[in-house]
Amino acid sequence: MTQAATDTSTERAVPQRKTTEPGAGRTRLAVTLLLLTALLVVSATAGLAIGSVQVPPGEVWGIVTHALGADWQDPDWSRARETIVVNVRAPRVLLGAVTGAGLAVIGTALQALVRNPLAEPYLLGVSSGASLGAVSVIVFGVTLFGPVSLSVAAFVGALGALLLVYATARTGGRITSSRLVLSGVAIAAVLTAVLDLLLLTTDRGNEARAVLAWTLGGLGGVNWGTLWLPSTALLLGVGVLMAQARNLNLLLAGEEAATTMGLDVARFRARLFVLLSLVTGVLVAAAGPIGFVGLMMPHIVRLFVGGDHRRVLPTAALGGAVFLIWADIAARTIAAPMEIPVGVLTALCGGPFFLWLMRRDARRGTDRGVA
């Protein structure tokens, strides 16, 4: 009698525990998103306040709200400070947030598409392809598509590089981690060499120097008139990827399992390759090739929200935005008045992280066929 009662209690307890797990996961996700949103607001405030001219945070918010049309505070700041915050730092901070978020979600999706934890636009040569396309437009003066010619060329270069890396790494229907990374590094080296050759042989010396600085990645020179395109690309990319989060989850189980569940893997992968190349091309055209954000953020946020892409994608976007804003703040202040390219700082952070991932995967023996 007692044993039967115990068994009955146990059977009832198990379903209760299972039903509370999704609720606990949603609570953790909500708390994580709330904290990251608050951290993003703090980071944006710091980005607007810190620089060669220091602006108190309270004054920053006064300037911002006044620029948005709110009159809750009398404008007791100088016109110069308002110009610095609104027209110089605000577009830069927003571009940093948009670029960081975009690179993070692109890296998340790429890691699922090729089932490789080391995948990200910079390492796979996608950023190099986008850079070559953009630089070709600048060097040859192509304006076929008007003001978006740079972004169109960067998209074509990114898509071509991604398809080339994927085709090179896939042998016998399989891709290993080492083969994918080596293919990406090799193709990126070739594309970079072609880019350098274009810069060395061009007659536009001033433009060549500016482009060379741009190839290191940076957020300077942005204005309100150029922010709409990367912002639109980010919204498009996040929206589509969130809608396809279930299919990205299916890919993690392997192509055969995903096909069994009704997913046309080849068509799905081809469509997302085009989307990711489009977003990468637009972001590279706006900020230059900035590496390792798409590698680090997905791995970091998975520690907090798990592997479900419905949770990873928005969390990675917020984390990438926060990270790149602070990287840009450091780039502006570490060696002031000289500015360090933000791509240099992200590489200093991402290089050791990449080596740690490789050592971890080597210990686990994960260098297996992944696609």
TrEMBL record:
Gene3D superfamilies: ABC transporter involved in vitamin B12 uptake, BtuC
Region (Disordered): 1-22
Classification via Pfam families: FecCD
Keywords, in A-Z order: Cell membrane, Membrane, Transmembrane, Transmembrane helix, Transport
Record's subcellular location: Cell membrane
Principal place of residence: membrane
Coiled coil start-end: none
Statement: the UniProt record of this protein carries the keyword Oxidoreductase: no
Transmembrane segments: 29-50, 93-114, 121-142, 148-168, 180-199, 211-229, 272-295, 340-358
Membrane-topology descriptor: Multi-pass membrane protein
Family: Belongs to the binding-protein-dependent transport system permease family. FecCD subfamily.
Protein name from the UniProt record: Iron ABC transporter permease
